Amino acid sequence: QVQLAESGGGLVQAGGSLRLSCAASGRTFSSNALAWFRQAPGKEREPVAAISWSGESTYYADSVKGRFTISRDNAKNTVYLQMNSLKSEDTAVYYCAATSAVFVPVRNVRSDDYLYWGQGTQVTVSS
Questions:
Q1: Segment holding 21, helix H or strand E
Q2: Is 109 helix (H, G, I), strand (E, B) or coil?
Q3: Are 96 and 4 in contact, with CB atoms under 8 Å apart?
Q4: Less Cβ crowding at N or C end of the chain, within 10 Å?
Q5: C-alpha–C-alpha distance, residues 28 and 5, integer Å
Q6: Which of 30, 39, 62 is CA-nearest to residue 49?
Q7: What is the C-alpha separation between 22 and 88, in angstroms, rounded?
Q8: 77-111: b or e for each residue (b if 16 or more CB lie within 10 Å)?
Q9: Tens digits of residue pLDDT in 53-84
């Protein structure tokens, strides 16, 4: 059974940092793109960041560019999201996801390309 398990969420003050991790089990995703999405209360789920299978290409939403960094460790089947300079508007449930197809580019991130999803981890930024 394929599972994606997020960890690292929590409560942090504005300006602080958090590092999210997402460990995959049940299969390897070394050839798949991995991404982080988020959903705030009353809003639609949106892509935050994505990373190609090799780690050479990344995507960031405009709202997080320069503050968030996505990375992956294929040996550990894990993807990370380092979040710095957090703002209250970053408050959301954060989900990691993996594509069903291999070698999917991350120039444009579409949730329909991502078949595997974690349960989500809450990030709350207090102002």
A1: strand 18-25
A2: coil
A3: yes
A4: N
A5: 14
A6: 62
A7: 23
A8: bbbbbebeebeeebbbbbbbbbbeeeebebeebee
A9: 999 999 999 999 999 999 999 999 999 999 99
